[in-house]
Design a protein that fits this description.
The chain has ten helices and eight strands. The chain has 298 residues and is α/β, with parallel strands linked by helices. It has an eight-stranded parallel beta sheet with strand order 2-1-3-8-7-4-5-6, with helices on both faces.
Length: 298
């Protein structure tokens, strides 16, 4: 991993029905949980990006503009030999994060997508029209043309080296699309049947083989809402936070890791700052010398 971690806030709620996630990066930056980390010598909060309020821009246009801005900032961090860690914001910002990585690398990376949802609708298949249900499809080259080809022409991530881990709420159109693309889906039923550790092993084996490296995007709603209440679209019976923390620690030391993204933090729903502390703990798993919850021993 690079010597310095640059945190980039992506403050958008435009892609969600509940736009409280727009306040997530700023609320986390002001939280006590962040203040306990900010003096670590290897972490720096770079910029917090906001959607344009220029008149005449559509919702899709505003999201596309923010994603292009985010892609630029991610690429800048990578060129400076820094490790970009994006804090969102609704999950539509992933279009920018991974387009920026793809542009820097010059090829589609692998991607571990940890989420309660598949996020693979298009405007034609979406039941809600919410763009945060579409970013993985966009990264795979399917969707509104304003959200495509931001980093490279075509796919921004490698379908053969992408895994969605932990989904438990999705529509058949999304599942059909991802299966056609060759994306591996390890849903919550499979996680319960095989165990999280075995499923993580398989997922890592797929994404880490991408020649261009890989990334991790974590939608906080993948975690059980009892443990992480401050999320945009909570779904019952999610992953255990301890498993996700151990996964982050393991992934952080793997060769080829390009970036990490943590999204859908909604401070309006965050009971007593529980989710903000979890975000800080997740960052702590990446930083050497920080003792976080459930850090692996040895």
């Amino acid at each position: 991993m690079a010597s310095k971690i640059r945190i980039i806030g992506a403050a958008s709620g435009l892609g969600a029905q509940d736009q409280g996630c727009e306040d997530g990066p700023v609320a986390f930056h002001r939280s006590q949980a962040w203040h306990e980390l900010e003096h670590h010598p290897r972490v720096d909060w770079g910029k917090t990006l906001f959607a344009s309020d220029a008149p005449g821009l559509s919702e899709f246009g505003r999201i596309a503009a923010l994603c292009r801005y985010l892609a630029d900032e991610v690429a800048v961090a990578l060129r400076a030999d820094e490790f970009p860690l994006v804090i969102g914001g609704d999950h539509s910002v992933a279009i920018g994060t991974w387009s920026g990585v793809a542009r820097f690398v010059g090829a589609p990376p692998g991607l571990l997508w940890i989420d309660a949802h598949l996020d693979s609708h298009t405007p034609e298949t979406s039941y809600s029209g919410a763009v945060h249900g579409m970013p993985l499809a966009c990264l795979l080259g399917r969707g509104d043309k304003r959200l495509l080809n931001i980093g490279l022409v075509g796919e921004q991530v490698s379908a053969a080296h992408t895994v969605v881990l932990g989904p438990r709420s999705y529509e058949p159109e999304e599942m059909d699309f991802l299966r056609q693309m060759g994306v591996r889906i390890i849903d919550s039923d499979e996680v319960q049947a095989r165990g999280f550790a075995a499923c993580l092993d398989e997922a890592i084996g797929i994404v880490a083989k991408a020649p261009a490296g890989f990334g991790v995007t974590l939608d906080l709603d993948a975690i059980d809402p009892v443990l992480a209440p401050g999320v945009g679209s909570p779904e019952p019976e999610g992953l255990w936070d301890g498993d996700v923390l151990v996964a982050m620690r393991r992934l952080s030391v793997m060769p080829g890791l390009r970036s990490v993204e943590i999204v859908e933090y909604n401070p309006d729903r965050d009971w007593q700052g529980t989710t903000a502390r979890l975000i800080a703990d997740l960052i702590g798993q990446i930083l050497p010398g920080v003792t976080g919850r459930d850090q692996p021993q040895g």
